[in-house]
Structure of Oligoribonuclease:
Amino acid sequence: MYYVYSHNDLDGVGCGIIAKIAFGEQVDVRYNSVTSLDIQVERFLGNVENRRKTQEGLFITDLSVHQDNEKRLNDYAESGGKIKLIDHHKTAMHFNQYPWGIVKVEYEDGRLASATSLFYEYLIENGLLTKTKALDQFVELVRKYDTWEWERTEDLQAKRLNDLFFMVSIDEFEEKMIRRLKENEQFSFNEFEEKILDMEEEKIERYIRRKRREIVQTFINGHCVGIVYADNYHSEVGNELGKDNPHLDYIAILNPGGKKVSLRTIHDQIDVSEIAATFGGGGHAKASGCPLTNEVFKLYVSEPFQLEPVRADAFKNIYNLKASDSGSLYVNREEDRFYLFPCEDGWNIQLNGVTHPETFASFEEAEYFIKRHYAAWLVRDETFIQFLMKQVKEISHPKG
C-alpha cells in the first residue's frame, strides 16, 4: 500500500491525481494544508513497528515537515521504512541531505520545477507509471501555473486549469482529471468547461477591480507593502496589484477565515519566501505564505487598520498623462501636490511648489519615489487644468 500526503492546491492535487493513475486502489491520498501535514505524518508514524512490517511506501509531495518530524522520518527511513519527500520550494532544500529527499527548484534548462512534474518524472523513471501525451500535457499545465510561467508564455490554458480546480470540489476535480487522462490521448477542456471558464474570467476581473480600491500601503520591517483582504484568487490578486503598484516591494493578502497570509511579489530582488520564513511560513521567491499568528496579526492587521486605501491613478485622462512633456500632477491624502516635470538632466519633482533637491534619471524613478514615500496618485484632468491655470496666472501676475 502507498500513502501520498500532498498539498491542497493545484500542484499538490496534481501529485495525487498521477499517484492514483499509477497505483489505482493501492494508494491512499490525503490532501493537507501547510500546518496539518505534520499531524498527518505523526499519525502515520504512530505505530512504527507495524509500518516496518508491511513496508508501506510514503510519499510527501509539495510540502515539508517541521524539524521534529524531519528527524522522526529519517529514523523511520534508516530502520527500513520507505519514504520519499518530493518538493520544489527553496525553503525545503535542506531535505536533499537525506537519501529520501528530492527537492529541486529549477531544472538544468532554466525551467522552474513543480511538485507534480518532479513526482511524475520520479514515477516514470522508477517504472511505476507509463508516460502518455495526455499526462505530459496535464503535468506541464500544472507546472506552468504553479511557477507562474504561464503568464510569461501567455499559456492561458494553465490558468484555466487552476480556475477549474477552484470551481469544483477536490474530489470532483480528481475524478474528472483521472478519467480524462486515462481515456483521452490529449488533454483538453470540454465545451461546457470552456463556457464556465469564460464566465469565471469575468468574475475574477470584477473581483480584482474591487480589490484595487481596497489596498492600503505601509512599511513593515523595511519593506514597502501593499495589504489587502481577499479570500479568493490570491495569485491573480497579488500579481495584478503588484503590476499596478510597482513601487510596492510585495503584496500581503490577508485571509482571516483561513488564518493565513499570502505574499506575492513581481520583483526579482525581493524574496518573499525569506519574509514568510521569519513568520513560520515558506514557499517560492515570488509566492509564499505564513500563518496569521499574533505577531503577523499585529504587523499586517491591527497596526495598518486605521490607514485609508491607496487611491488608483486616473485612467481616462487626455491631458494629465504619465511622463508628459508638460508634466504630470499627483496628490496624496494630505492634499500635497506633486508636479513631476522634465528637465535637462532627467525629471524633477515640485512638492507644493518647492522643487525637490534630487533630480531623477527617469519619470519612472520620480514616480516610484512619490508613490513609495507619499502614497500619491495621478489626478484627473480637471484638477490638472486648474493647477496649470493657476500656474499661468501666477506667472502673468506675480505677487508684489
